[in-house]
Amino acid sequence: MQCIHPLPFEVPEDKISAAESAIARINHALTLPGFGLDHRNGFIYFRLSIPRRDDGTISAKELQRLVRTSISTAADFYKPLSGVVLESKSPDQVMVDAASQAGLSSKLDDRNAETKLDT
């Protein structure tokens, strides 16, 4: 089972490279990476997948966690990613911008957060 949450802005052709770079930096720092770019339709999304149980089911708790995590992670990175795509901010700045948002540091992998956020 997977949950895909698109971000609500389009990525213009001239911002594809910057968006790819920002996504790579974010995914490297996240414990559960899942950001992607749909090149054909020009949008960024966050996707998480969870396996089904042996009997093919997923519990309500697992489904809630999947949806909640997908939405909250996409929301946490909306401003930093839209800054790169819509405001021409540098992809190098995306993790600094993300870390400045309240509560985000707990979602970053400690190993990468220390390296990326001390710039």
Tags for this model:
119 residues, alpha+beta, three-stranded antiparallel sheet, 3 strands, elongated, disordered C terminus
How does this structure look, described?
- This protein has 119 residues and is α+β, with helices and mostly antiparallel strands.
- The chain contains 4 helices and 3 strands; from the N terminus they run βαββααα.
- The longest helix is centred in the middle third of the chain and has 27 residues, at 60-86.
Structural class: alpha+beta
Count all strands and give the number. 3
- Helix run count: 4
Order of SSEs, N→C? EHEEHHH
Q: How much of the residues is beta strand, in percent?
A: 15-25%
Give the strand order, joined by hyphens, for the main sheet: 1-3-2
Q: What Rg, in angstroms, do the CA atoms define?
A: 15 Å
Q: What ranges have pLDDT less than 50 throughout 5 or more consecutive residues? A: 109-119
The largest β sheet comes out as: 3 strands, antiparallel
Mean pLDDT: 86
Terminal CA distance: 37 Å
Shape, principal axes of CA atoms:
elongated
Percentage of residues assigned to helices? 40-55%
